Amino acid sequence: xxxxxxxxxxxxxxxxxxxxxxxxxxxxxxxxxxxxxxxxxxxxxxxxxxxxxxxxxxxxxxxxxxxxxxxxxxxxxxxxxxxxxxxxxxxxxxxxxxxxxxxxxxxxxxxxxxxxxxxxxxxxxxxxxxxxxxxxxxxxxxxxxxxxxxxxxxxxxxxxxxxxxxxxxxxxxxxxxxxxxxxxxxxxxxxxxxxxxxxxxxxxxxxxxxxxxxxxxxxxxxxxxxxxxxxxxxxxxxxxxxxxxxxxxxxxx
Length: 253
Prior knowledge:
The chain is built from nine helices and eleven strands. It is an alpha/beta fold. It has one domain: Spore Coat Polysaccharide Biosynthesis Protein SpsA, Chain A, CATH 3.90.550. Strands 1, 4, 5, 6, 7, 8, 9, 10 and 11 form a nine-stranded mixed sheet that branches. A two-stranded antiparallel sheet has the order 2-3. It holds the Pfam family CTP_transf_3.
């Protein structure tokens, strides 16, 4: 199959300044991400950034990079601009890998791309894994997804979904014994034509309520296929503690 991996990378980060350029074993983090996903067999892996320092660092290490506007409201808007710049066709497939995921599993990236190729009924593909604790289920920072019988997303939420009526006590959601709730993994494959339309759509009311941009696609009637993996992926880098953890992994390799 043919697909492109795009890695959006912004310099702004309140918790970890200059995050894309953070050193991990002698290379900037965004370069580590690009090198890792190069293993998936994509036609091209390109970093889409709003800062010349990021673009220069990528090119210095042989990673293609293109400049995008600095005023995009979402990662999807940035990717849509990148698709135009790369002259990608509407039926082409693009996989969005975040620039702060240096430990991402290349097989998971490939699985999302493969799933969208196999699902002509869907415009977007993403991933999820079973939630293992009630604590995760009740954490609003953990995004949940529920599926239909064809493994398409019915809804994404920060709330505890599905709500197990007979097993929940005192308003605290528990885990159904025969149907684990699913945690959404922020990895997406898109059909380029749909991604290009994303910036032309107004923000959806549910998107604004949940602060989840993927709900805009569903609000517009686009279907989202979901690949369910048994294991949780390695966590990304959001804090100095996360960065120390990832550096230790690379140092031990």
